[in-house]
Amino acid sequence: MVSCLILALNISWYMPFFADDSLITIRYAQRLIDGHGLTWTDGIRVEGYSNLLWVLILAFFGKLGANMILVARVLGVLFTVTNIYMLIQYAKSRYKDAPLLLSIVLFFFSVSSGVAVWAIGGLENSLVSMLALHSIIRYLDYKKCGEIRYLWLSSITLGLLCITRPDGVLLSVMIGFYHLISNKSELRNAFISLSKLAIIPIILYSGQLIFRITYYGELVPNTALVKVSPSLYHAWTGMFYNLRFLKSNFSMFILATSCLTYLVYKKKSKGILYVLLLGIWFIYIMIIGGDFFFAFRHHLFTIIVFMLVIIDGLGTYLSKNKLSINQKKLAVLLFSPLLVFYVYQQITDDNNTRSRQSLWVFNLETLGEKLKLVFEKEQPLIAIDPAGSLPYFTMFPALDMLGLNDYHIPRNKPKKAGRGFIGHELGDPEYVMDREPDIIQFHLGTREPIHNIDTMLSVNSRFLDRYIDVSIYVPAEYEYRGVLYFDKYSKKVGIDSTFGKLEIPSYLFRADTEVFNIFEGKELVTPLEPNKPFSFVVPYTISPTLIRTIPSGLDVESTRNRSTGLTRLTITNPGDSTVIFKKVIVLQ
Predict the structure, then answer these.
(1) Residue 512 to residues 246, 518, 536, 556, 566: CA-CA distances in angstroms?
(2) Among 51, 192, 288, 438, which residue is least crowded by beta carbons within 10 Å?
C-alpha cells in the first residue's frame, strides 16, 4: 500500500503528460472501430504502429464507448501496480528477508520517473514491462520447481509480448538461449521444454507476420523503416542514451550492479540470465539509436530486471549471511544517502522534468477541435510532423511528412538518412507537394522550419508559390498560438472560385505585422483593427466588376500590377473599433 501511495504521488507530479505517439495508436484504433481497418488514413495501407496488442485493447474499449485516452491511462496505471504485486509475490516466495528487500526495491520502482511517466503516457510501455516481468518470473518459477505449468504461463506472456512490440521477441530469444546453455548437460530434455516455452511466441509472432504480409504486403512494420537506420552516428546516440539512463538512475545502477556481481561471483545461474538480458538489451538500444522520448521509456525493461537483480542479489546475500536487527538497521542507515540522491535525481534530471512541461498535445487538441468544427464538411488533407495530436483530434485525411504512417517516404530516404534525429530525419518535399495538402503544419505550428522536411519545404518553389502562412490563436486552458500554412488554391480552405465569382477567406490576407486569426462560431476570421491595411494578391488574372466585403463597410482598394497582371486587394477598417473580417467576394 505504501509503494502504491508513493507511485500515486509520483504519477500526480507528472500529470497530465500524454505522448503524441499514443494518439497515433488511438487513431488506428478509432479507424478500426469506424470500419476503415487497421489504417491511419486512406490510401496505401501501412503499419505505422508497433504495438498491435495495445491497439486492439484500446479498440475493444473504444468500441464499448469508452474514452480511449482515459482507458490508456487507467490501464497503464493498473499494469504498473500489477508489477508491484508481482515483485512482492516473487520476493515473498523466495526469501525470508522479503520485507527488507521489498522496502528497497519498491522504493526504487515507485519513485522512478520513468515508471510514473509511462504509466500515464498512453503508450504500451507499462503493458510491455508487465508482460516481460511475468514471463521472467514464471520462467524462474519453472527453474525452481520444474512444474510445466509455469513454463506454459511464461510462454503465453512471451507470446503476447511478441505482438505488443516488435522487439518483444528478443526476450523469447534471450530466455530460450539461456535455457539451453543452463541445461547443456541435458540438451535433449532442454529442447523438449524449450519447444513448450517457444510454442506460443512462435504462433503469435508468425500469425502477426502472416497478417502483415497479407494485409500490408510487407515483412517489417513501417516503424522499422523510419526509426531503424543503423549508423555510427545512431550507435553513438544510442550509447549516450544508455549512459544518460545509468547516470539518471545512478543509485539504482550501483546497487543492481553490486547485486549482479555477487550473483555471478556465487555462480548463481540467475546471474547469467540477468547479464544476458541486460547486456543484449543495452546493445539493442545502442544499435537503434536510443529514443527521442523523455523519461527513458525503452529502459522500463531495464528497471524491472534491476528490481529482480536486487531482490535475488540481496536475498541470496542475506540468506547466507545472517545479520542481526541492529546490523540491518545500520546497513539501511548507510544506504540512505543513495536513496536520497536517487529521489533528487528523479525530480531534477532534465530528461524527466521535461515530461512535466511537454503538454503541447493539449495545445494541439485545442486547435484540432476548432479546425474540426470549421472544416469538418470539407475534410481537408492536413500534412503534419507530429502524427498523433492534430490527425486524431480532427480525424481529417492526413499526410505524415516524417513517414511513419506513409508508404512512399520511408522507401525513398534522403541520402543523409542515419545522421539525423532518430525518427524525424526523413522527408520528400516534392512528394508532399504532389499530394497537394490543404493545410501544412511545421512541427507544432512554427513559422521557421524545425525538422529536415520543414527545411526542405521552406525553400521549395512550389511550396512558396502555393502556401500562405496563417497565424492562429485559440484561447483555452491549453491555448494554441501558432502558424499553419494554407493552400490558397485549395477548394476546401483557399479561394472558392466559381464561374464569375471568387470568395477569398479573410485569413489569406496579411498585414505588415503578425495578426492572429481567431475562431468565431464555425468560421476562422480576422480581427481587423482600425486603419490597419490587410492585403492579398489574387494568384491569377481577374477583371473585377464588384468587390464586396463581409462584413460590409470596409474600404477596398484594387490595384493591378502591370508586369504580372495580378491584382492586389487591400482591405482597411475605416471605423474606430476592431471589426471581425470574414471574407471578400469578387464578382467579374
Answers:
(1) 51, 18, 12, 17, 20
(2) 192
Neighbours of 15 (CB within 10 A): 13
In the chain, what are the helix, strand and coil shares in percent, each to the nearest 5?
Answer: 55, 15, 30
Measured CA to CA, the distance from residue 261 to residue 397 in angstroms comes to: 54
CA angle 468, 472, 476 (to 5 degrees): 165
C-alpha cell at 39: 489504417
Q: Checking DSSP bridges between strand 579-581 and strand 523-528, what pairing results, if any?
A: antiparallel
C-alpha cell at 228: 531503424
CA atoms within 13 Å, Cβ hemisphere of 45: 16
- Report, in angstroms and rounded to the nearest whole number, the Rg of the chain calculated over CA atoms: 29
Q: How many CB atoms sit inside 10 A of residue 540's CB?
A: 11
pLDDT score recorded for residue 38: 98
CA 229 – CA 281 distance, rounded (Å)? 18
Say which DSSP state 214 is in: I
pTM of the model: 0.93
Q: Are 541 and 531 in contact (CB under 8 A)?
A: no
Residue ranges of domains in the chain: 2-12+19-357, 495-588
Q: What is the mean pLDDT of each run of 10 residues along the chain (588 residues)?
A: 91 95 98 98 95 98 97 98 97 91 95 96 97 98 93 97 95 95 87 93 97 96 84 88 95 95 89 96 93 91 98 91 77 83 92 88 97 97 96 98 95 75 83 97 92 93 96 96 96 88 93 94 95 90 82 90 87 93 90
| Spatial separation of the C-alpha atoms in residues 305 and 318, rounded to whole Å | 20
Helix (H) and strand (E) counts in the chain: 22, 15
Q: Which residues contact 509 (CB under 8 A, 6 or more apart)?
A: 526, 534, 535, 536, 569, 571, 581, 584
The residues facing 569 across adjacent strands are 536, 558
Question: CA–CA separation, 191 vs 196, rounded Å?
Answer: 9
What was the pLDDT predicted at 501?
Answer: 86
Q: How many of the other CB atoms lie within 10 Å of CB of 189?
A: 10
CA distance 533 to 189: 85
CB distance 109 to 3 below 8 Å: yes
Amino acid 100: pLDDT:
87
Name beta bridge partners: 483: 471
What is the C-alpha separation between 375 and 373, in angstroms, rounded? 6
Give the containing element (helix H, strand E) for 399. Answer: strand 398-400
**Residue 184: what pLDDT?**
84
Q: CA 221 to CA 504: how far, in whole Å?
A: 43
pLDDT at position 418 is 61
Q: What is the DSSP letter of 469?
A: E
Report H helices in 93-186.
98-111, 113-120, 125-145, 148-162, 169-182
Number of C-beta neighbours around residue 317 at 10 A: 16
